[in-house]
Specification:
The chain has about 120 residues and is an all-beta fold. Helix content is about 0%, strand content about 60%.
Length: about 120
């Protein structure tokens, strides 16, 4: 089992910046190999913002390319999201997500979720 805790959300003006952080913890048998950020805008489904694997593969959602940067350390179970040039359309609840491999069971464990952190972009 893996627990994810997000931090860093808040209110920011349009054009501003914000950094989100996520820390994972849990049983030693589960090894995180990929982490990601998703967001749910008001009235919309939860969409991928950015993802990072332990192989260094990074993916960004089209809406954030060039503005957001994901970084992290799978060995430390941490991931951050640097968000620049924020717009009101970036408002939403941001969720940390992780996939892991359980060395005890030999099984992959998909879609661990944090509780989410609110980001509001408004003047």
């Amino acid at each position: 089992q893996v627990q994810l805790v997000e931090s860093g959300g808040g209110l920011v003006q349009p054009g501003g910046s914000l950094t989100l952080s996520c820390a994972g913890s849990g049983s030693g048998a589960s090894s995180i190999y990929a982490m990601a950020w998703y967001r749910r805008a008001p009235g919309k489904q939860r969409d991928l913002v950015a993802s990072l694997t332990n192989a260094g593969v990074i993916t960004y959602g089209d809406a954030v390319k060039g503005r957001f940067t994901i970084s992290g350390d799978m060995a430390k179970n941490t991931v951050s999201l640097q968000m620049n040039r924020l717009t009101p359309e970036d408002t939403g609840v941001y969720y940390c997500n992780a996939d892991a491999f359980n060395y005890n069971t030999g099984e992959y464990e998909y879609d661990y979720w944090g509780q989410g952190t609110q980001v509001t972009v408004s003047s």
